[in-house]
Write a structure and sequence with these properties.
The protein has 152 residues and is mainly α. It has a domain at 3-73 and 108-141: Ferritin, core subunit, four-helix bundle (Ferritin), CATH 1.20.1260.10. The protein is 74% helix and 0% strand. It has helices at 3-32, 39-66, 86-114, 117-141. The model has no long low-confidence stretch (mean pLDDT 93).
């Protein structure tokens, strides 16, 4: 891998780390803002996503150090929308998952170009996880019995 592309990979991985940390913060916040009859399972799902975001951030940081870089101490954008309806939370989650997916695809493109199998496999694994998250949120946004994909 060229020095320039190693720097690019580190930059992408740090961006992923920041994005995943922001997701962990958002999901934690959302878990505190759920009220109503279905609170317990939804809060559990949100807390699980927060923990997974931390795990993903840690893995990205490990990849940064593997490449000889310094993991970022930044966190991605933390915008408070003041929208705490479950539908609003899920739509914001959908946006977050799409952003994460795009970041992993960008990393995969660079890894394939550089023929760095370790980075390729890492990106592929996380792409699968993000695609599954997108599907899960998409299904949660559908009305019961609606088999058509949710489109915002």
């Amino acid at each position: 891998m060229t020095k320039q592309n190693t720097a690019k990979a580190i930059e992408l991985l740090n961006g992923i780390m920041e994005l995943e940390l922001a997701g962990a913060v958002h999901y934690t916040h959302y878990s505190l803002m759920v009220f109503g009859y279905h609170r317990i399972p939804i809060v559990g799902w949100l807390k699980s996503n927060a923990q997974e975001g931390l795990a993903h951030a840690h893995r990205a940081g490990e990849m940064v150090t593997l490449l000889g870089g310094h993991p970022s101490l930044k966190i991605g954008p933390l915008l408070e929308t003041e929208k705490h309806d479950i539908g609003d939370i899920l739509r914001e989650s959908l946006d977050h998952e799409r952003a994460a997916l795009a970041a992993y695809y960008e990393l995969l493109e660079l890894a394939e170009k550089e023929k760095m199998v370790l980075l390729e496999e890492y990106a592929r694994e996380l792409i699968v996880e993000e695609e599954l998250h997108l599907d899960e949120v998409n299904k949660m946004l559908r009305a019961p019995g609606d088999v058509a994909a949710f489109t915002p």
